[in-house]
Design a protein that fits this description.
The chain contains eleven helices and 21 strands. By secondary structure, it is α/β, with parallel strands linked by helices. It folds into three domains: about 5-70, Archaeosine Trna-guanine Transglycosylase, Chain: A, domain 4 (Roll); about 80-185, RNA methyltransferase domain (HRMD) like (Transcription Regulator spoIIAA, 2-Layer Sandwich); about 205-395, 3-Layer(aba) Sandwich (Rossmann fold). The longest helix is centred in the first third of the chain and has 14 residues, at about 80-90. Bound molecules: S-adenosyl-L-homocysteine (SAH). Its EC number is 2.1.1.191. It is an enzyme of class 2 (transferase). This is Ribosomal RNA large subunit methyltransferase I.
């Protein structure tokens, strides 16, 4: 690696970094040079040049790198990454021992002391996500550590940063023996088709595992379920396995049709009684109102931002209106599962959207249960932004 760079933390941010805040941000640093070479080791010091922490430079969203250590003498070398990965893998031991789940996250960025990096496990296959050029510069250490510590069929990767204007190399194989995709993984006994050789989205979002299980085990039976922003229909499949009488999956993307059929098929479910609709959900809501369709359960899991032909959706600005649409087609006593992965607002604010939406539709509601990230998505209290997932089960009342 190149020469270290010393960055001076503004006085009012010193305690924040001392107490464990991991993200290197522009506003906290006096002498940040945005053109620093990616992967450069950074020493954070106070204005008296006293050491606070060390990390690496890597542009990722609005951040400029991550703290890796608070020990001045610790070298960021092969041993460092071995130790981090070993701890991360040990922490997931209950998952490795599970008999009915073999898809989970083994490294969750800053939650495991490795900001900018995630690694997921899919039944013997590992998928590394590199979120900056900076962390990618440490790839040899990290891949070596993974090879040393894990038994694997293959390792794949996704470079989630811009490489010469090209964003994602679809089939980015690293080591082992290439898989035949889809591979079929298990989540709480349910099959899921996963493609590690396509886009950044592999077919399932592992952070919703507990929510899917809850829908199957406690809510689905006998219900007519609408799953909006359904992607590959994972919520619909769990509802169907939980004996929902019907599911309707709505997603704008063409790919969602075949992918959803596939998720039903790999579970031996008959798709005859299930609808899969490729359409803008906002059009679908209008259609449902016009046709007086109502549902016992409506699942809302939009992206934080989405641009379709007609509209721009931002969870922070538009979630309240999305809820109002959902309320209008939910049966009295029905359940709305409201989910967001937006890190730009917290649970309190999310609940204020829920409050507002029910007020403006002159209806009452009851909050039934809440979810955040599952245990394999390890987080640290010093970085609440990292606890992005918020899911609320709401009973809609007249
Ligand atoms: N709920 C899914 C994940 C959703 S990912 C799951 O649990 O697996 C977000 C999805 O929203 C993408 O598949 C995208 O195609 C879809 N999407 C974005 N904007 C949309 C819109 N306006 N109408 C319908 N789908 C939309």
């Amino acid at each position: 690696m190149k020469k270290d760079v010393t960055l001076t933390v503004k006085a009012k941010y010193v305690n924040l970094y001392k107490s464990g805040y991991p993200l290197i941000s522009k506003e906290a640093i006096i002498n940040l040079n945005e053109d620093t070479k990616e992967g450069t080791i950074i020493r954070l010091v106070d204005e008296k040049n006293k050491f606070i922490a060390k990390g690496y430079f890597g542009k990722q969203n609005k951040g400029f790198g991550w703290v890796l250590s608070r020990n001045e003498n610790e070298q960021i070398d092969q041993r460092f990454f071995m130790n981090k990965l070993r701890d991360a893998i040990n922490y997931r031991e209950p998952f490795f021992n599970s008999l009915d789940t073999n898809a989970f996250r083994i490294v969750n960025g800053e939650g495991d002391g490795l900001g900018g990096l995630t690694i997921e496990y899919f039944d013997g296959y590992y998928l590394i996500n590199w979120y900056s050029k900076g962390i990618y510069r440490f790839r040899e250490y990290i891949i070596n550590a993974l090879k040393e510590l894990a038994e694997f069929k293959a390792i794949y990767q996704k470079k989630r940063f811009d490489v010469d204007g090209k964003y994602i190399e679809e089939d980015d194989f690293v080591a082992g023996e290439r898989g035949t995709f889809p591979i079929i993984v298990k989540e709480n006994g349910v099959n899921l088709a996963v493609y590690l050789n396509e886009s950044a989205m592999v077919g399932v979002f592992l952070d919703q595992r507990d929510v899917r299980k809850t829908i199957r085990d406690a809510y689905a039976e006998g219900k007519n379920v609408l799953n909006t922003f359904s992607y590959t229909g994972a919520f619909s499949v769990f509802a169907a396995v939980g004996d929902a009488v019907k599911t309707t999956s709505v997603d704008l993307a063409n790919r969602s049709l075949n992918k959803t059929i596939e998720q039903f098929r790999v579970n031996g479910l008959d798709i005859e009684s299930h609808d899969i609709i490729v359409e803008d959900v906002f059009n679908y809501f209008k259609y449902a109102v016009k046709k007086q369709l109502t549902f016992d359960m409506v699942i809302l899991d939009p992206p934080s931002f989405a641009r379709s032909k007609k509209i721009v959706f931002s969870a922070e600005k538009d979630y309240k209106n999305l809820l109002k649409e959902a309320i209008s087609i939910t049966e009295d006593g029905g359940i709305i599962v409201a989910s967001t992965n937006s890190s730009s607002f917290n649970m309190k604010k999310f609940k204020s959207f829920i409050d507002q939406a029910f007020k403006e539709t002159n209806r009452k509601f009851q909050l039934i249960e809440e979810f955040s990230l599952p245990n394999d998505f390890k987080t640290i209290k010093e970085f609440p932004e990292g606890i992005y997932l918020k899911v609320v089960f709401i009973k809609s009342l007249p």
